[in-house]
Amino acid sequence: MKFSQIFFFVLLIANFSCSAQKASTNQLINQSTKIISAAERIDVYLPLLKGKAVAVFANQTSMVGNIHLVDTLLKRGVNIKKIFAPEHGFRGTADAGENITTYTDKQSGVQVVSLYGSRQKPSTDDLKDVDVILFDIQDVGARFYTYISSLQKIMEAAFENHKPMMILDRPNPNGFYVDGPVLDMKFKSFVGMQPIPIVYGMTIAEYAFMIAGEKWLSEEANKTYSFYLHAENSADTPFHFQVIHCKNYTHKSRYALPVKPSPNLPNMQSVYLYPSICFFEGTAISLGRGTDKPFQQFGNPLLPNNLYSFAPQSTEGAKNPPLLNQLCYGYDLSKIDALKEIDNRIQLKWVIEAYKLFPDKSKFFLTTNYFNTLAGNAVLMQQIKDGKSEEEIRKSWEQGLNDFKKIRKKYLMYDDFE
Predict the structure, then answer these.
(1) From CA 137, how far away is CA 172, in angstroms rounded?
(2) Burial (Cβ within 10 Å: 0-12, 13-18, ≥19) of residue 99
(3) What is the distance, to the nearest Å, from the Cα of residue 164 to the centroid of all Cα atoms in its chain?
(4) Where are the domains of the chain?
């Protein structure tokens, strides 16, 4: 073999070795910085479920890698007695607000009990054959997103019936800021059950600790939680409330959801815009349900016809969307830099602009006053009608936000953005 060939061969081996070492190093770096949801930490929580009859609160976001949590647990011999499902159902295909009945899931063979609509809370009968409740849902961090309301109802049922509950925590994609008006409890509903701002900057487990710690649950649930929290040798008591943490997550993180959390939040653009434009659900304006860009565009047939246009159609997850088959004029937000545009704040400019352009102001807000339900007060609607600027409106939130932030700080499990 010639010297040049030997040199090339040695060089090739050296390059391969360096590349392999670099790849190995990168892999270690990725493993040490990659955000890992609690559901992926199977070795931590699986031993605690073995030999137990388990009820799982889950939907299509409850994934362990590419496999659903329910399938993951069934394959490992966990006895899943039933599945509790939130708004949009267990597989996440139902319309917003759609009523779903109890049924058997074809893929897993497990009974699914809907906890949305007229029945929001497991009954004593639902839990009589259950040893532990496992909660795993991907939240988006907005007060009017109903998964945190379902969480409260599940917690109350668990505490009242002395059933152990475990939460598998997941990162909050909007967990890097806190903003919006704090809910006035006169406007309490399933899209706002507690005195928190629209964006509350907590993971679902942190939120759970807060509503329990602040005694915002039912009277009986508060008593039970308080008793066992302060009981001696609590590990031996018949009730446990346990959280499995995420790894490598902080409130400075920008976490991209691997699965869409509901039919009309299909991507991160919609997730980032959602807290700012969901107000339109209480107005005559379409948010693009029934299009390929829901929560990324808005419009109405009565807005100026020289604007961007779209027409909602009947689709899965939006069978009868607002303004069905009507040509709407408005704005396309799908191409903007959403993170830069929101700038860690609720943005009111879009709803203010739409109100200014709407020809008949008396018909802009729905007569149901659902806008007030979403806002959590009757003040914001009036401020918009009065022509207040965004900064003037924002000033009215300050005291409530400052008070909430003090409460929030007590329950954070991950490093904060401040």
Answers:
(1) 11
(2) exposed
(3) 23
(4) 38-244, 268-387
Identify residue 201 by its one-letter amino acid code.
G
Q: Span 268-387: which CATH code?
A: 3.90.1150
Residues in CB range of 388: below 8 A, 6 or more apart: none
Q: Containing H/E element for 242?
A: strand 241-244
Look over the chain and give the mean of its residue pLDDT values, rounded to a whole number. Answer: 89
Chain length of the chain: 418
Higher pLDDT, 97 or 322: 322
- In whole angstroms, how large is the CA radius of gyration of the chain? 24
Q: Which of 119-123, 224-228, 259-263, 267-271 has the lowest mean pLDDT?
A: 224-228
Contacts 24+ apart (CB under 8 A), 219-222: 220/156, 220/159, 220/160, 221/155, 221/156, 221/159, 221/160, 222/159
Is the Cα torsion angle 97, 152, 115, 66 positive or negative in sign?
A: positive
- Which one is the CATH code of 38-244: 3.40.50.12170, 3.30.70.20, 2.60.120.200, 3.90.1150.10? 3.40.50.12170
Tell me if 271 sits within 8 A of 261, measured CB to CB.
yes
Q: What is the pLDDT of residues 233-266, one digit of tens each?
A: 444 455 689 999 999 999 999 999 999 999 899 9
Pairing status of strand 165-168 against strand 241-244: parallel
**Range with the poorest average pLDDT among 148-152, 173-177, 313-317, 330-334:** 313-317
pLDDT digits (tens, 9 = 90+) for 122-175: 999 999 999 999 999 999 999 999 999 999 999 999 999 999 999 999 999 999
Q: Does the pLDDT at position 2 exceed 60?
A: no
What tokens does 173 get? 């994609």
Tokens of 403: 């008070």
CA–CA dist 271, 264 (Å, integer): 10
Quote the pLDDT of residue 106.
81
Angle at the Cα of 259 from the Cα atoms of 279 and 210, rounded to 5 degrees = 60
Burial class (CB in 10 A: 0-12, 13-18, 19+), 347: middle
> Is there a contact between 104 and 112 (Cβ–Cβ < 8 Å)?
yes
Residue 149, token pair as written in the block: 């309301």
Token pair for 395: 């000033």
Residue 182: CB atoms within 10 A of its CB come to 21
* Type of residue found at 86: P
Burial class of 26 by CB neighbour count within 10 A (0 to 12, 13 to 18, 19+): exposed
pTM as predicted? 0.89
